[in-house]
Amino acid sequence: MINQGLKEKISMPYAEALLELGSNHNLTAEIKQDLSLISATLKNSKKLELFLVNPIIVTSKKKEILSKLFADKVNSLILKFLLVLVERRRINLINTIISKYLILTYKLESIVVAELFTAVELSEHQHKNIANKIKFITKSTNVNLVTNVNPDLIGGFVVKIGSKIIDTSLAGKLKQMAFYLNA
């Protein structure tokens, strides 16, 4: 299995090529939408994901399945890109490539990506307030807030912006207290 650092290093040229392809054809928004569809499809179908990463299955069969599945749903350039990944035996990196592509497009658009982990689902008002606080903290005009529900947090939330983590969760506070009591 490839470690995460190596995956990211291998994925970056593919993401850059995809970004250049989108820029040259004025398809950046469409590519982003198509990649979101592909990512969601793979996330919702573990069987498809396992099928694509299985080295025993021949590439022609993988290409056939991808073509049937996405032919009328994504741009032909994206479909060709997927087929190239299959041909080069890099389809197992598709999620990392998509992630890297999105990071590159967000940098170009000056969008800050923040991951928000909460114990419960937030209301629209709470979501907006946290996004506004992140805009203020990062001095950014645009924030893409990716929300994940994690009941293990008990209460509060955790925000991850790049390598910075803001932990206001009850679980985080309990860990801090345990650390100080054990020290």
From TrEMBL:
The signal peptide annotation in the UniProt record is: none
Question: Topology relative to the membrane, per the entry?
Answer: Peripheral membrane protein
Q: Which UniProt keywords apply?
A: ATP synthesis, CF(1), Chloroplast, Hydrogen ion transport, Ion transport, Membrane, Plastid, Thylakoid, Transport
PROSITE patterns in UniProt: ATPASE_DELTA
Q: Which GO terms describe its molecular function?
A: proton-transporting ATP synthase activity, rotational mechanism
Q: Where does this protein reside within or beyond the cell?
A: Membrane; Plastid, Chloroplast thylakoid membrane
Q: Give the GO cellular component terms, alphabetically.
A: chloroplast thylakoid membrane; proton-transporting ATP synthase complex
Main function: This protein is part of the stalk that links CF(0) to CF(1). It either transmits conformational changes from CF(0) to CF(1) or is implicated in proton conduction.
Q: What is said about its interaction partners and assembly? A: F-type ATPases have 2 components, F(1) - the catalytic core - and F(0) - the membrane proton channel. F(1) has five subunits: alpha(3), beta(3), gamma(1), delta(1), epsilon(1). CF(0) has four main subunits: a(1), b(1), b'(1) and c(10-14). The alpha and beta chains form an alternating ring which encloses part of the gamma chain. F(1) is attached to F(0) by a central stalk formed by the gamma and epsilon chains, while a peripheral stalk is formed by the delta, b and b' chains.
Q: What is this protein called?
A: ATP synthase subunit delta, chloroplastic
Q: Which organism is it from?
A: Platysiphonia delicata
